[in-house]
Design goal:
The chain is an alpha/beta fold. Helix content is about 40%, strand content about 15%. The protein has 9 helices and 8 strands. Strands 1-2-3-4-5-6-7-8 form an 8-stranded parallel β-barrel, surrounded by 5 helices. Helix 8 links the parallel strand 6 and strand 7. It is globular.
């Protein structure tokens, strides 16, 4: 069984200097707490322009370097795109695919998401596939929608390992986030249905929750959820490390 995960996407919030300072700060926290670092897989997904420097900072550390997107093709006339082949060469190990912002703002459809998952797998990158339902509904209905998203994303083949980042779209920026009970039921159903599906029952699967996630949440979630995919609540490096410690403690129970 894989170790649980604490991951963060920095999106485009920070200027370069702060991004690199953040990477150094979380590395220092891990170095000062090797027991936690040994129990949790740690990942930071900075912007493209800091991949080279971030790779240098995380070299010989427990951190997996991640990217926030990739092109469906490795080479060609794709202006402005970033190749998964180059990301892998730079040291990236994880790549986010199909985030709600990519699906809505940039209009990425299911086929594009699937091609990006295949591109990640082709380059030995772990796809962090983001899934979620658009409107509030029952947990069973939400799980069915998420299952369909996963199966669609795997239409061109299964990666050696898949991280799912579950976040109900309707809860993004909402005054009240989805409850831990709701999130737990959705993720429990997703895992069960994937395990029962002949095409995915042997999938090397890690499920993360990413909706308004921060310190204090992981202990409230079902064990079918393997960790948190953090956003702005982890902009303080210490908050990131608090989540990592809570995840490690939960694993030790």
């Amino acid at each position: 069984m894989q170790k649980p995960v604490t991951a963060v996407s920095l999106k485009m919030y920070f200027p370069r200097g702060r991004t690199l300072s953040y990477c150094q700060a979380v590395r220092d926290l891990a170095a000062a707490d090797p027991d936690t670092a040994a129990k949790v897989r740690l990942a930071v997904l900075p912007d493209f322009l800091t991949q080279v420097e971030a790779a240098e900072i995380f070299q010989d550390s427990p951190f997996l370097l991640g990217a926030q997107d990739l092109a469906p093709a490795d080479r060609g006339a794709f202006t402005g795109e970033v190749s998964g082949s180059d990301l892998a060469e730079l040291g990236s190990k994880v790549v986010e695919v199909g985030h709600a912002e990519r699906r809505t703002i940039f209009r990425e459809d299911e086929d594009m998401v699937a091609r990006k998952v295949e591109a990640a797998a082709r380059n030995d990158l772990i796809p962090l596939l983001c899934i979620g339902e658009a409107t509030e509904m029952s947990a069973a209905e939400a799980a069915q929608i998420c299952l369909e998203q996963v199966l669609s994303a795997l239409r061109y083949g299964k990666p050696a390992e898949l991280w799912l980042g579950y976040e109900p779209y309707w809860a993004i920026g909402a005054p009240k986030p989805a409850s831990p009970e709701y999130v737990s039921e959705v993720c429990r159903n997703i895992r069960q249905q994937l395990a029962e599906n002949a095409a995915t029952q042997d999938l090397n699967l890690t499920i993360l929750y990413g909706g308004s996630a921060g310190p204090g949440l992981i202990s409230q979630l079902d064990e079918s959820i393997n960790g948190l995919f953090l956003g702005r609540f982890a902009h303080d490096p210490q908050a990131f490390w608090e989540v990592a410690k809570e995840t490690a403690a939960r694993t030790s129970l």
